[in-house]
Structure formats: structure tokens, C-alpha cells
Amino acid sequence: MAAAGTGFVFAQSGAVLPEQWTPPQTRRLPAWHSYAWAASSVRPGEPVLTDQREAVRSLPGFGIDTVAPVWSDPALPEKERRARWRATHWYLSGRAGTARRAEIARRYDIRWLLLSRWQRVPKEAKVLDFSRETGEVLAKLPDRKGSSR
């Protein structure tokens, strides 16, 4: 009975004590910003290239695909997931030329970029929106010739 009472007090400590006095396991997670501003432009199923931690985890909640999925996916071999992350980092590194970025965009059918406030917008992309909270930028890549979009 004492163990149950101790567990109850431990679990409820975050509700009654200042956060700095509570055990780390009971502290609230930081609130993430909403990506509804980006989802209002991107249609469900369209791939977005981003390496932003919160965006990669939040956009799928709106039905939006990310080029590099954060979680393992049974339908996507781990080797391919790692290749997608390498392509994402290469595209956003600033070292990839126009031809290399176009190849990556073509391979993964990328139409959208979601960039941090510090990442440069590639010259072929057009800024459509930005987050007033985080400074993140949503940019659209041009439609490719022969594309069904």
C-alpha cells in the first residue's frame, strides 16, 4: 500500500509543485508550434523537404509527407530512409549546385521546402509563407515539365 501511495505522490508532484522541484520524469514537455500555417498551402500526400526536428514530426499529422521520415517505416527499408536523410542534408547544405538539387527534387518528387530562418532559400524556389513564431519559411519549387501537377 505504501508503494502505491509513493507512486501516486510521485506521479502527481508535477501538478502541485513548481516544475524545478519535480522529478524530470514528471515535467511537462515543451509546447511545439503549430504547422497549420504550412499545412494550409501543402496538400496532403505532397512531399516536403525539411530537416527541422519539429516539422518532420508534426507535418505527417496533417497528412503531409516528408522526404526523410523520422520514424522507421515498415514500407521503407532503413537503407532508403538513411539515403533520404543524406539527400535532404545535401540539398539544404548550400554545397549542392542547381543540377544536384534538381536531381534530388526529381527523385523524391519534391514540390515544397520548409526551411529554418537560417537556411538559404534556393534560387529556384519561391517563398510562399513563413511562421511568425519560428521564422521558418515555406517555399515552393517550380512545377517540372511533364509533371502531372
Describe the structure.
- With 149 residues, the chain is α/β, with parallel strands linked by helices.
- Helix content is 34%, strand content 12%.
- The chain contains five helices and five strands.
- The protein has a five-stranded mixed sheet, with no helix packed on it.
- Strand 1, helix 3 and strand 2 form a beta-alpha-beta unit.
- The longest helix has 15 residues.
- It is globular, with a radius of gyration of 20 Å.
Provide keyphrases for this structure:
149 residues; 5-stranded mixed sheet
Helix segment tally: 5
Taking pLDDT < 50 over at least 5 consecutive residues as the criterion, the unreliable ranges are none
User: What does the largest sheet look like?
Assistant: 5 strands, mixed
The percentage helix is 25-40%
Total DSSP E strands: 5
Distance between the termini: 64 Å
Which secondary-structure class do the elements indicate?
alpha/beta
Shape: globular
Order of helices and strands: HHEHEHHEEE
pLDDT averaged residue by residue: 86
Radius of gyration: 20 Å
Strand fraction band? 5-15%
Strand order of the largest sheet: 2-1-3-5-4
Topology of helices and strands:
Layout (H helix, E strand, L loop, with lengths): L1 H15 L19 H4 L7 E3 L3 H6 L6 E2 L11 H15 L5 H10 L4 E4 L10 E5 L6 E4 L9
Parallel strand pairs: 1-2, 1-3
Antiparallel strand pairs: 3-5, 4-5
Can you describe this structure in just a few lines?
The chain has 149 residues and is α/β, with parallel strands linked by helices. The chain has helices at 2-16, 36-39, 53-58, 78-92, 98-107, and strands at residues 47-49, 65-66, 112-115, 126-130, 137-140. It is built from 5 helices and 5 strands.
